[in-house]
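ok so i was messing around last nite and threw this chain in just to see what happens. nothing serious, just curious
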Amino acid sequence: MKFGETFTEYLHGERFLDKCSHVEYKRLKKVLKSCRTCKGLHDSACKTEQQWDEGKDISESQLCQCQSSCQLCDHMFFSELMKEASDIAGCFSSRARHLLHLHVASGMQRYVLRIRQCFKNDQQAMIEEGRVLIEYIIMNAIAIRKILKKYDKVHKSVNGKNFKSKMRAEHIELLQSPWLIELGGFYLNFNGLNCGASSEFSGHFSFDFNASRPVMTLALPSSIKLEYDLTCAVCLDLVFNPYALSCGHLFCKLCACSAASVMVFEGLKSASPDSKCPICREAGVYAKAVHMLELDLLVKRRFKEYWKERLIAERAEMVKQSKEYWDLQTIHAVGY
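result:
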């Protein structure tokens, strides 16, 4: 079965995310097929290239025609695809945030949820919701990849490849979302507790903490695998109490705060807008940092001793920084 048919079948069979955006795969594919301007340019380019190889004279207008791009196709194609990718990323992050907040709720909300579970067990519903979200992001990501590959094939260009880089720069590259890593942790946490998590979708994710670098692996169709590095680039160890900056890079909370010159008890949100990611040096990435609670819970369950050691070290650093902070405030207040 071709991917277009598979994608159409997925859209007709899914009901949970009816209100969320999807890639208009078939319509975008028709835009490429009906692009007569591009076909004409391609034929002209082939003819001009043949004349060039034969040593014949080529006018400047012919060269300009060969080097021009299809403005109509570019405008319709990339602007619409960018909007769709942005809407999909927004919908996915919103739904995933809501689901995971229920799973790792704290305080009064956690107490209320525990009482509710005495009368109604929502675990299976949460697992199913997670399954739908994972399928949603994977299917749309594959659709975008295939349509961009088709674009480059039709236009004999690398604009589709460049568009992927633009999506990554705009933080809407679907398979690089920190919420997908969180959903992987969510499934592995449920699977570890034998809560009936679907083996089909928990099998998409795997953890390898014993390798030279700890990674989470996401298995996609066609034997494609994506690896998410779980090493903090500052302390060079497995991330503890991890945060994902809006650029997508993962750090321990302590390390991220240190890199932004803020105290741990103040948190990443208090970082200056000019603070840069220690890896890519992009500014303004701390304001929308994501606390990776499911990933932290997974590390806590799989590596209890390591997690306890890092917790003790982080609390000791917080106490030290708090003492320094209040000593400084006292000096300013007294006037020394």
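not much to say yet. The beta strands are 205-208, 215-220, 224-229, 242-244, 250-252, 290-291.
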